[in-house]
Amino acid sequence: EVQLLESGGGLVQPGGSLRLSCAASGFKFSDYAMNWVRQAPGKGPEWVSHIFGGGDRSYYADSVKGRFTLSRDNSNNTMFLQMNSLRAEDTAVYYCVKDAVPYNGVCDAFDVWGQGTVVTVSS
Amino acid sequence: EVVLTQSPGTLSLSPGERATLSCRGSQTVTSNYLAWYQQKPGQAPRLLIYGASSRATGIPDRFSGSGSGTDFTLTISRLEPEDSAVYYCQKYGRSATMYTFGQGTKLEIK
Questions:
Q1: Helix, strand, coil proportions of chain A in percent (round to 5)?
Q2: % pLDDT > 70, chain B
Q3: Chain A residues touching residue B93 (CB < 8 angstroms)
Q4: A30-64 burial, b if ≥16 CB within 10 A, otherwise e?
Q5: Is the backbone peptide bond immediately before B8 cis, with ω within 30 degrees of 0?
Q6: Distance of CA B37 to the CA centre of its chain
Q7: Are the C-beta atoms of residues B50 and A109 closer than 8 Å to each other?
Q8: pLDDT tens across B52-100, in order?
């Protein structure tokens, strides 16, 4: 069974940092691009960041560019999101999400989502 | 940047009826890279439809997607109480910066 398990969320003050982790199982991790998607309370999902299977390329939403860094360790089937200079508007549930198919030139739809980890930025 | 607008905001129907949810893009959605998700309270979204009309694994055939260009539709036939949820459309494509979600349609089953 394909599973994604996030960890690392919590309460942090504005300007602080957090590192989220996503542990993957049940599929060949290195074959798939991975993403973080967040959802603020009462709002729709917002794509945050995407990383290719080999970890050689990543993309970021404008709202987090320069503050968040996405990386992955394919030997341990794990992905990390380093979040710096956090703001109140970063408060959300953060989901680890898998692309539906191995990369074929298309950044694909999301077929598997983790249960989410809550990040709260507040003083 | 393509903006996706979903309508209606809320839809209230009875069991057995058919729901029609709309998603309209501000520009053409390339190659029909359009997905639909269902989200129930306290849960992560679940992929229903990709490529505008292909059902994801395990999704009942009561759920169908259609459309092209800028106008897309999710149809849920023979509504069941467990179909109560918020439904989101999403655009994807050849660059991850193309990922965009609509604002959602809340479906209530009376």
A1: 5, 50, 45
A2: 100
A3: 106-107
A4: eebbbbbbbbeeeebbbbbbbbbbebeebbbbeeb
A5: yes
A6: 6
A7: yes
A8: 999 999 999 999 999 999 999 999 999 999 999 999 999 998 887 789 9
Structure tokens at B43: 């849960």
Whole-angstrom Cα distance, residue B81 to residue A65? 41
B35 close contact with A: CB closer than 8 A: yes
Q: Do B92 and A106 touch (CB under 8 A)?
A: yes
A56-60, A101-105, A107-111, B86-90: which range is least confident on average?
A101-105
Q: How many residues does chain A have?
A: 123
The answer to whether B36 and B88 have CB atoms below 8 angstroms apart is yes
Q: How far apart are CA B48 and CA B58, in angstroms?
A: 9
d(CA B7, CA A22): 34
